[in-house]
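Table 4 source record.
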Amino acid sequence: MSSFLRVLLFICIALSFIPEHAFVAGITRHYKFDIKLQNVTRLCHTKSIITVNGQFPGPRIVAREGDQLLIKVVNHVRNNVSLHWHGIRQLQTGWADGPAYVTQCPIQTGQSYVYNFTIVGQRGTLWWHAHISWLRSTLYGPIIILPKLGVPYPFVKPYKEVPIVFGEWWNADTEAVISQALQTGGGPNVSDAYTINGLPGPLYNCSAKDTFKLRVKPGKTYLLRLINAVLDEELFFSIANHTLKVVDVDALYVKPFETDTILIAPGQTSNVLLKTKPNFPNATFFMTARPYVTGQGTFDNSTVAAILEYESPSKTSHSTLSIKKLPLFKPVLPLLNDTSFATKYSNKLRSLASAQFPANVPQKVDKRFLFTVGLGTSPCHSNQTCQGPNGTRFSASVNNISFALPSTALLQAHFFGQSNGVYTSDFPTTPLIPFNYTGTPPNNTMVNNGTKLVVLPFNTSVELIVQDTSILGVESHPLHLHGFNFFVVGQGFGNFNPNTDPANFNLVDPVERNTVGVPSGGWVALRFLADNPGVWFMHCHLEIHTSWGLKMAWVVLDGKLPNQKLLPPPRDLPKC
C-alpha cells in the first residue's frame, strides 16, 4: 500500500471516531416581524395594542446553536420601535443588540431593519422584547435554542417542550402610564392582571375562558421553558402537588435540583423538568404565579393561574364536563416578601461545570468596580407640584448617576469616534461619596444626571460588586448585562466587605447568567471577561427603575485579531 493510501486510510478511520455533530454547520433562518396594531380583549376589556404579526404574546423564534438569524422588522405603527434579543451574546454584532439609543436609533414609522446575528455557544431558552419606553408590555416572545444536531441534553430527554411566558395585561395604555409617572414624578399605576402565555386565567374577573391549560400524559417528562416578561415584578411560580427540577437558567445548564417553587425575576429564563404522575390522578392542578415584593411602591397584588390537566385513560374517556367535576388542587406560594426563600433558592443555583459544559470563571481580576444601585430623587421642575418623596421626583441611579440616554446611538458615536457631546468616559469605578449603604440613609437623596460610560480594553477580566442601598428603602434589583454572561461568585446582606467577603467567593462552579437579582439590602459579586467589542447596556430589568435612570453602559474596545473587532454597521441601520 502506498504511503498516500495509508495516510488516507488513517484519516478515514480517525474521522469515523469524530461525532457526526462536529461537522454540522448552522443554517440561516429568516423571520419577518411586522409591528402592527391589533385589537385584543382580556378581562372583558378590548383595546388596540402594539404586536408582532398581530400576535400577543409575540411569535416564538426557534433555532439551533450555531444558526444565523435574519429577522426583518417592519414598523407599521406611529411609535418608534426597537427589539432586543435578550441574552444573545451578539459576538461582533453589537449593531443587532437592540436597545434604543444605545446600539441603534429606533426604527421609525414606515421603516425597517434586519437584525442579523449568529447564535454562538448558547442553547436553552432566551427571549426577545421591545427595548424602548414601555413597549415591551406587549412586544415580547420566546427564543428557543436547541442544541446542535446530535448533541443530547445533559438530562433526560423530555417527551414534550412547552414555553410558559409570564406577562401582564394592562387595561390602560402603558405608554400613557409611564408618561404620566415621569410627568408627575410619582410611582406608576400597576397592571390589571398577570398572564401565562397571554392569558389571565380563572382567578380574574371575566377570564375563566382565557385560561392556559397544559394537557399532559401520565408518566412523562415535560420541559417547561419559563420566561418572566413582566415589567416590574419578580414572581414565585408553583404547580400544585408536583415537584419541578431546575436544569437551566438564562440558557446555561445548572446542576439539577428539585423544588416546589421557582423564583424568576423580570428578564430571567429557566428550564425546568416536570415529571407527571405515573397514573391518571383523578384531579386537576393549578399552576400559579404571584409577585415577590421587596420595595415600598405599589404593585399588582394578584395571582395568575393556569391549569395542569391529565389526559384521561381512553377506557373511561372523561368529557370536559367530568374534568370539571374533578377536585382542583392549589399550590401554596411563599409570602410576598419571603426574602429567606429567595436567598435559599439563589444559593441552590450552581453551574453544571462538566467537561462538556465547563464554568470558565475568571480566576484573576484586571479591574474591580463597586456600583451602588437604588432609588433617589430629582428636583421638581419649577411651577410644578411633584408626587415623589417630599414633593420631589422619583429617580434611580448607579453610583448616584442617573443615566440620560442621548438622542443618537452610543455605539455609532463610539465606532465613528464621535463621542464628543454624546457621552463621556468617566463613569466612577466606586461611589464618589461612600456612606453606610444599607444603614440609615443620608439626608441628601438627590442624584446626578449624566451620560457616562466605562471603557474596558479587550479581554479585561472584570469583578463587579453591585451594592443595594437603603435610600428610599432597600429593594431587590434584577440587573441585566447586555452582550455577556457573568458568573455570580458571591452574595450577601448588608454592606460588602472587601477584606472578608472575597474569601467566601465560589470560583469553582458559580451560576452563570445574564440577569441577577441584587439581594434586597445586600450585594452581589459578578465576574466576566470583556471579550465582546461594542457598547453594552447594563440596567435594572424593573422597567420603572430603568425609566428613572438605573442604567449605564460599558464600552469594550476592539482586540488585535480580526475576530476580536466589532464589524462595521449594516447599511440599513436606522437613523435618528
